[in-house]
Amino acid sequence: MEKWRTLTVTLETVTPMFLGGADPRGVPELRAPAFRGALRYWLRALVGAAGEQVMRQHEEHLFGMGGEQATAGAVSLRLPALQGTPTQSYSELVKKRPGIAYLWFTARGTKREPERDAILPTAFKFEMSLPRSKQPAQDLEQAAAVLWLLTRLGGVGARSRRFAGGVQVANVKSNHNLESIVGRLRVHATSPQELVDELANGIESARNAFGIQQLANPAPDQFDVLHPDRCQIFVLVQSFDSWQDAVEKIGQIYQSFRALRQPDYNVVKTAMTSGNDLQGTVKRAAFGLPIPFFYRSLGNRTATLQAEERQGNDISKIDRRASPLWMRAVKLSNCKYAVVFTWFKSRFLPANAEFLLTERQQLELRGKQLPNDQLIQMFLTGVDPEKHSALSDADYSVLEVPLQ
After folding, report:
1. Of 72 and 344, which is predicted with more confidence?
2. Closest CA to 380 of 286, 262, 292, 282
3. Mean pLDDT, residues 277-287
4. Which of 134, 253, 325, 358 has a CA positioned 20 to 30 A from the CA of residue 376?
């Protein structure tokens, strides 16, 4: 294949990656479908800001379409089958690190399932090729723009919204125009302030790669979009010497912020003891669902908060609502680590949805009062009058990335 149809980069995992094959708790492996899914998500976030129809057209062209009318996209991905990839178990990763343990708790072992292993920070080749493209230069630039976003804001694998699976470009091999976004794939910033500028300029360049001249008005709210009306990006002013320091510190603050928060604690406890529906909202649900609750004072009773949607006589359970807040560690060019928060303000749940609280061998309880996003705002940029555990209460501050 002609070299100008291929972009080969060296990616490095900046934070451990929980990425499995057919058995998620089996041996970790690098999988092209996982990377393709992550790239799809960031394409939607970028191009969706210009409208859903525009986004669907670009997604289908670059990455194909599934279903009965399945089509192949212009972009093909290839990753090597690495031998001897360094891995580590969840328990070893989080030893003496309660903040990381809290953020990655779903990887812990249970009575039914073994703990997960993660791919440790390592380097590997990643190739994007365009064997079927009729406009390879443009398609490669657009694919690179999406990769740029993934390597600044997102991650791959489980717990990627909570720092895990962060990847970055360490080296670029391409005959493509290095003055374009391909030449910006590596992180050049040496400080959080420089990273703010790099993010703002890079998002603008990524939009230009897709020919986005005007953002949708009103902004779409049914999915995550990088639109100033539906998203805010913040970079922590402070930097860290290692990814462990960054993730552990933010994890401790986040755990303290969420733990035993009122009125959530009493709203759920009262419902469980009375057998009546939730009287009030659960504010922490703004960070995503499901939420497990454990009450030692009730004889170690446990319950899970999820949601369900009603459409006429049809009821469908909503097992999960992904967190609207991405937490990401970015390795700066001077080997320091910055922290990026990307907050998507898309619709929390469908219009006809309500909370669903379930407890084993107990009645299902419901709640109609859904939360707003004030708790997320408080954590990122406000002060916490109840627990004094927001970022600012821990003497951290953030810089906002302009998205205009």
Report:
1. 344
2. 286
3. 96
4. 358
For residue 358, the cross-strand partners are: 304
Average pLDDT of span 304-315: 90
224, amino acid identity: D
pLDDT in tens, 79-112: 977 677 889 999 999 999 999 999 999 999 988 8
The b/e string for 288-301 (b: 16+ C-beta within 10 A; e otherwise) is bbbbebeeeeeeeb
